[in-house]
Structures are given as structure tokens and as C-alpha cells.
């Protein structure tokens, strides 16, 4: 059987391209190719793919029609969106792709809207009895008691840890509230940071969960990490996934501090460090390929290698010219 995969906004995710290429070689009766797209012609992932196309921004009205044309030309069975800004576009058009026989590994538009809105996300977790830092809109906090500092001020809608500031007093709070567009105020939680790589099939069944310690991050992305078997975190992740009805690869972030575990963020896409989860035995690219091929996937929630360490590094790629 032929399974052709389209990775959208591939950027520098060479590891993800290679993970799908390896997955397509693991099954003797499955063959296919990995096509990637990006609006930046100098994205390294393009040149490690079997074929690539430069595309318009996801904000363009021609974005979805152009993707459909590529899918038809390359006989694509599966689309894997990877950038926060495009997830909603794909989610809103998921049924359109499905009519063409193409599955999109993305959660519902409702789930994405909640996850992208840090205030709504916090309130959603509170309603589901999931521990999370207390979060407020500026109008909900007129003046903060000095004992409650430090606090965090961050954009209500943001990603990659951009625009997050720790404030230590009222003066700093007022400054950053005026500096950051659409800010929220959040309880500061000090502790060890973790990420969970979770994968659900297209029927919203959770297949795998791998927690990993974030030993070192750069630009919000884990570059050193270690897998851990955290039973409490895994059970909370199951509860969160059930509440949202997630589909595809999901990354959940939490902190363990003095008051225990607190979930701080969910990104409904492949996370930058989830190569570690794949290496530890939760091979979500392979799961997706097998599902598209009609295979039945067994639950692998507790079946991963504990204590596996990942050390990421960059690699140079040289091009004589760029087409497209």
C-alpha cells in the first residue's frame, strides 16, 4: 500500500521528516514518500524531504486551495500540521480534506482555540479539576498584595515562550501590562519543568504517553531531556486528553514545585523535543502511517523506555541554489 505524507510548515524539523521516512520503511507492505511545504524557501526540512513545495502564508485565502492541489498531485493520504498559527486553518477544513480521502492529524477547532488562549485554557483546566497556576486578566487584578509576588505576565495568545516576564513588584507589573499586548497575569510556579508527548488516533483514543524532563531548553524548545515514568502525570494527561478530545500528536507542559504538579500549557501538535518520545518507543509517525494503512494500533501508554536521555545538536546543510 502507498502512504504519502505531507508535513506543513516543516521549517527546521528535519528530525520529523526523517522519522516519517523511517516509519515508511519499517512496514514491508507499505511504501510512500514524505512531501514537505513551507513559506520560507530556506527551511532545512524542505531539502531533506523526498519532495517539497514553497507555499503562501497560512493567513492567505489561497493557502488551503494550494494545499489541496499539492495533495491531489502527490496523492497525499496524511497531512501533519506543525505550526501553531496554521492549526486552526487545518482544523476548520478537516472535513474538506477527508472528503478527498485525506486525513489531517489535527484536533478540533474548539480544542485548538482553547489551547491557543492561555486564559481560557487555565479556566478549562480548573473546571476539569486539573491543577494549574492561578491565572487572571488585568481587570481582575487591580492591585496585588506584595506577598503574592513574583508573578508572570505573558501574552494571552503566544508560543515558544516569547514575551513571558517575571515581575517582582507593582511597578514592574504595571509596566509589563502596558507593554505586552493582550496580557494575562499568572501565579509564578518554581520547580522542575516537564513535557509530555501524547498521541491519540483519529477516534480520539490515547495510544501513547511519554513524560520527559526538560533538562535544558532554548527558545522554548527542549534540547536536553530525559524520559521519566511519572504515574500521576500520565493519569492527568489521560484526563486532559479525554476532556479535549485530542487527535494526533500533542505536547503538554507541567511543573512540579512545592505544591506538587501543575499543568501550564498544551500545544496540539508535534513538539520540538518529541523526537525523544519517538526514540523511547512511542513512535507516533509510525502509528500514523499504520493507521492510514488500516492497521489496528494497540495501546502503548506504559510501554516506553524510562531514563532515555536526548542531547540535540544542529547540523549544517549547504545548497548550491534554491528553486521555487
Q: What fraction strand?
A: 25-35%
Distance between the termini: 30 Å
CATH class of the largest domain: Alpha Beta
Number of spatially distinct domains: 3
Give, in order, the helices and strands.
Answer: EHEHEHEHHEHHEEEHEEEEHEEHHE
Round the mean pLDDT to the nearest integer and report it. 94
Shape: globular
Number of DSSP strand runs: 15
The multimeric state of the shown protein is single chain
Major sheet details: 6 strands, antiparallel
Task: Classify the fold: give the CATH topology of the largest domain.
Answer: D-amino Acid Aminotransferase, Chain A, domain 1
Low-confidence stretches: none
CATH structural architecture of the largest domain: 2-Layer Sandwich
Give the strand order, joined by hyphens, for the main sheet.
14-13-10-11-12-15
Number of helical elements: 11
User: Structural class, from helix and strand content?
Assistant: alpha/beta
- Please give the radius of gyration in angstroms: 20 Å
The residue fraction in helices comes out at 25-40%
**CATH superfamily assignment of the largest domain?**
ATP-grasp fold, B domain
Amino acid at each position: 500500500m502507498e502512504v504519502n505524507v505531507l508535513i506543513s510548515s516543516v521549517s527546521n524539523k528535519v528530525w520529523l521528516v526523517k522519522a516519517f521516512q523511517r516509519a515508511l520503511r519499517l512496514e514491508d507492505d507499505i511504501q510512500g514518500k514524505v512531501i514537505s511545504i513551507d513559506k520560507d524557501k530556506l527551511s532545512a526540512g524542505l531539502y531533506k524531504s523526498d519532495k517539497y513545495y514553497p507555499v503562501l502564508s497560512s493567513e492567505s485565502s489561497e493557502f488551503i486551495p494550494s494545499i489541496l492541489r499539492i495533495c491531489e498531485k502527490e496523492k497525499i493520504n496524511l497531512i501533519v500540521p506543525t505550526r501553531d498559527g496554521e492549526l486552526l486553518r487545518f482544523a476548520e477544513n478537516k472535513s474538506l480534506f477527508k472528503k478527498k480521502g485525506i486525513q489531517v492529524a489535527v484536533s478540533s477547532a474548539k480544542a485548538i482555540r482553547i489551547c491557543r488562549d492561555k486564559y481560557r485554557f487555565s479556566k478549562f483546566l480548573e473546571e476539569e479539576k486539573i491543577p494549574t497556576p492561578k491565572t487572571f486578566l488585568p481587570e481582575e487584578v487591580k492591585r496585588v498584595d506584595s506577598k503574592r509576588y513574583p508573578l508572570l505576565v505573558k501574552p494571552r495568545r503566544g508560543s515558544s515562550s516569547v514575551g513571558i516576564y517575571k515581575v517582582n513588584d507593582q511597578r514592574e507589573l504595571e509596566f509589563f501590562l502596558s507593554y505586552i499586548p493582550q496580557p494575562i497575569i499568572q501565579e509564578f510556579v518554581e520547580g522542575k519543568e516537564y513535557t509530555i508527548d501524547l498521541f491519540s488516533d483519529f477516534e480520539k483514543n490515547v495510544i501513547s504517553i511519554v513524560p520527559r524532563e526538560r533538562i535544558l531548553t532554548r527558545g522554548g524548545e527542549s534540547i536536553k531531556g530525559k524520559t521519566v515514568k511519572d504515574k500521576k502525570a500520565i493519569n492527568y494527561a489521560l484526563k486532559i486528553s479525554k476532556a479535549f478530545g485530542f487527535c494526533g500528536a500533542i505536547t503538554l507542559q507541567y511543573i512540579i514545585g512545592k505544591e506538587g504538579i501543575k499543568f501550564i500549557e498544551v500545544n496540539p501538535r508535534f513538539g520540538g523535543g518529541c523526537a525523544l518520545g519517538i526514540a523511547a518507543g512511542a513512535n507516533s509517525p509510525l502509528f500514523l502511517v499504520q493507521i492510514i494503512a488500516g492497521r489496528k494500533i494497540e495501546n502503548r501508554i506504559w510501554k516506553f523506555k524510562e531514563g532515555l536521555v536526548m542531547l540535540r545538536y544542529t547540523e549544517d546543510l549547504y545548497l548550491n541554489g534554491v528553486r521555487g
